[in-house]
Amino acid sequence: MSLITVGTMAFDAIETPFGKTDRIVGGSATYVAYSASNFIKPVQQISIIGNDFPEAELADMRARGVQLDGVEVVKDKPSFFWKGRYHEDMNSRDTLVTDLNVLADFDPKVPESYQGAEFLMLGNLLPKLQLNVIQELRTRPRFIAMDTMNFWMETAMADLKIVLRYVDMLMVNDSEARQLTGQFSLVKAAKSIMDMGPKYLIIKKGEHGALLFHGDQVFFAPALPLEDVFDPTGAGDTFAGGFMGFLAKTGDISFENMKRGIIAGSALASFCVEKFGPTRLKEVNHDDINGRIRLFKDLVNFDIELS
Ligand code: AMP
User: Fold this and answer.
1) Rounded CA separation 185/16 (Å)
2) Per the domain annotation, does 164 fall within a domain?
3) Summary mean pLDDT of the chain
4) 145, 171 Cβ separation under 8 angstroms
């Protein structure tokens, strides 16, 4: 099974109550790729970078089985840049700067070697570019998931609603689900989103876990209660990469298997928040991930006799 990942490869400047970074590597597709590569190889990346993106980071990705033929390098422009500041609760944040830079003229091309991929993860990106990638694929992947964020709802809502018609799953956080639908109740918001196109929906609730919806079925996965959350940047993308990597590895897109995928994604996300940027993701190995998945099992496992 193969997985195409699309999104930004970027520099981020992050402020949290615990510290500050200037310009570190980030981007939606960076996190998705590092995370997914724990389950499936190759991860076929589509993105765009400037002349400033570190060669060492590209080498790290390649070493983890991330194929970069679909990553365009623009010689005379800087990479996408995002700056954000987290609130005290670490669940909400303000975007301070979004500099599109190379992204402004991006026209994604799907390399010939990526054609025929069965899974497609459209990471956070301009909706019209997400759509371009779907249209560039000669055979529709078996399963297409997409992520988005408030920035695109504010600047490109019409395009976003078009892409929604072409995907199987949307992954958003609770505030984005409310913004997209105007519904406060997440159950009503879920119904409304599933009427827009995607038949599957994941609503992420930060430290309060994630909900999976499909028709009348709902599944809830907790987030691991962590003593310290250092930097939540990329947790959503890491979750998405873990989820899609797991589906691609198992080749099973049943609702039951998506439940396992959500736990795999949550386990990876729980590592991501432990250090700034993708640093922690690059340290963990197979045993660490299995250890976390075991903790999730224990967290939700209970026995009850009904009288
Ligand atoms: P997350 O915390 O999972 O929402 O993802 C944060 C990552 O998304 C950061 O590394 C940013 O570089 C990237 N990002 C921020 N804003 C955007 C945007 N408007 N489009 C695409 N990627 C973005």
Assistant:
1) 29
2) yes
3) 96
4) yes
Q: Of 257, 306, 270, 272, nearest to 33 (Cα)?
A: 272
**In angstroms, what is the C-alpha Rg of the chain?**
18
- The full DSSP string for 165-182 is TT-SEEEEEHHHHHHHHS
CA distances from 198 to 20, 51, 167, 194 (A): 37, 37, 5, 5
Q: Is 28 in the pocket of ligand 1 (CB under 6 A)?
A: yes
Which tokens sit at 84? Answer: 């954000």
For residue 307, being part of any structural domain is answered with: no
Give the pLDDT of residue 228: 83
Question: For the residues 177-201, what does the mean pLDDT come to?
Answer: 98
Whether pTM exceeds 0.85: yes
The per-residue pLDDT for range 199-226, each reduced to its tens digit, is 999 999 988 999 999 999 999 999 999 8
- The CATH number given to whatever domain includes residue 225 is 3.40.1190.20
Residue with CA nearest ligand 1 atom 1: 234
Please report the sign of the dihedral spanned by the C-alpha atoms of residue 289, residue 81, residue 114, residue 158: positive
pLDDT band at residue 46, thresholds of 50, 70 and 90?
very high
Q: Read off the pLDDT band of 148 (50, 70, 90).
A: very high
How far from each other are the two terminal CA atoms of the chain, in whole angstroms? 46
State if residue 108 touches ligand 1 by the CB under 6 angstroms criterion.
no
Query: 33 in helix, strand or coil?
Result: helix
DSSP-assigned states of every residue in 167-232: -SEEEEEHHHHHHHHS-SSHHHHHHHHHHHS-SEEEEE-GGG-EEEEETTEEEEEPPP--S-----
Pocket test for ligand 1, best of 57, 79, 82 (most atoms within 8 A of CB): 82
Residue 227, pLDDT > 90, answer no
Total of domains in the chain: 1
